[in-house]
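Translate structure to sequence.
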């Protein structure tokens, strides 16, 4: 079965950094797209960053210049480097993938930005 598992969340002070990781149980070499979404309390889930099989990358305007998405196809992993974190970045972050002709989601990892 296809599984996506996130790790790397935690508590960090404003201005700090975190690196999230997502490992998949299947190859992501030909995945149409992989990415990260987040959901804050009382808010809808929103896209943070997406990387396609063709190598194109898109970021939400709120994180552009601060976050970086990358992938390691050989290890079946996707990463999200988060710098200059703000309190408004606090949310549960989900790994997402479209592969094998359907959507897959991880269970989420909590990121809390607070002093």
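Result:
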């Amino acid at each position: 079965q296809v599984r996506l598992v996130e790790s790397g969340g935690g508590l960090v002070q404003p201005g700090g950094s975190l690196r999230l990781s997502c490992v998949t149980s299947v190859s992501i070499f030909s995945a149409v797209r992989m990415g990260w979404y987040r959901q804050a309390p009382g808010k809808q889930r929103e896209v943070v960053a997406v990387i396609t099989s063709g190598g194109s990358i898109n970021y939400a305007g709120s994180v552009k210049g601060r976050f970086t998405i990358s992938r390691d196809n050989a290890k079946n992993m996707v990463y999200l480097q988060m710098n200059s974190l703000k309190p408004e970045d606090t949310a549960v972050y989900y790994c997402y993938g479209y592969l094998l002709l359907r959507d897959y989601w991880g269970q989420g990892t909590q990121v809390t930005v607070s002093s």
